[in-house]
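Extended Data, record diphosphomevalonate decarboxylase
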Amino acid sequence: MNNYAKARAHTNIALVKYWGKRNSALKLPTTSSLSLTLDQFYTDTSVQFNETLTNDQVTFNERRLDEQSARRITDFLDLVRNQAGITTKAVVQTTNNVPTAAGLASSASGFAALAAAASKASGLRLNHRELSRLARRGSGSATRSIDGGFVEWHKGIGDRTSFATQVAPADYWDLNIIAILVNQQPKKMSSSEGMQLSQTTSPYYHEWEKLCQRDLKKLKIAIKNHNFNDLGTIAEENAMRMHALTLSATPDFCYFDADSLKAMRIVHQLRESGIPCYFTMDAGPNVKVLVEPEHRESVVSTLQTAFGPDNIIVAAPGPGVQYLT
Ligand code: PMV
């Protein structure tokens, strides 16, 4: 076996979101989803299997994790070891160029990079589809970070059929996604807990499943036609309907904070003034704004004035997973 590998994976932002599992252990989603991989936010992870170790050693942003904090990563390594038919422990080093757990999908880039590095280091030779299925076991949204550009995660009917494929590469459409960092604190309600609560208690959940199917179809047509207004409208509506599942849960919960609402209002005002831009939000308060390059500067300067230049990051479509060694 090769023992060592290092990989980089980028985060993705869902335009039609994944919000619910029909099998938690296998992380099989209730609906298919479609995302855009982003160039600015990524995770680098190296994995070294070493026969002399008695435990996995995990370092995250240069900080050694204790056994409990590393559990999700060591559980994932067990899956890889199982597939590869080995029992060797590993040293894992991860550097995140993403504000962790603030709704910028660090688990997506994190588990995509870990899946790529761990599988290669363990001697497994996985194709894209197999890698995407493996990443899914770490975090659902990681399924989509194996590929670059626009990516669809097919919900499938079981483990073998639930994986992602590329709809269009990163250079297919010159778009920008402006991230507004309104709050970088880790979220209080994890996406897994949030999904579970929405699914089991929101009276609108069944409607959401039907809606996602329709949105996905419409979104693929908008991508095919380079129709920015349709793409933005579908993404914004889909995001708000996902958040409606949190507001309508029992007990209710909410990922917005006051600054998220301020960002949404600014996007609405910009649109009313004739600048086409749309927002989306994941399971955290940060807002991402979709815009085409011709209107980027006016949107960036408005957002910088409102939130401070340091809190605005301009991203573009990004690549799929890459091996760094
Ligand atoms: O991959 P998870 O379990 O962190 O779930 C991600 C859920 C959303 O980011 C809110 C939506 C999505 O499709 O990425």
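Summary. The chain has a mean pLDDT of 95.
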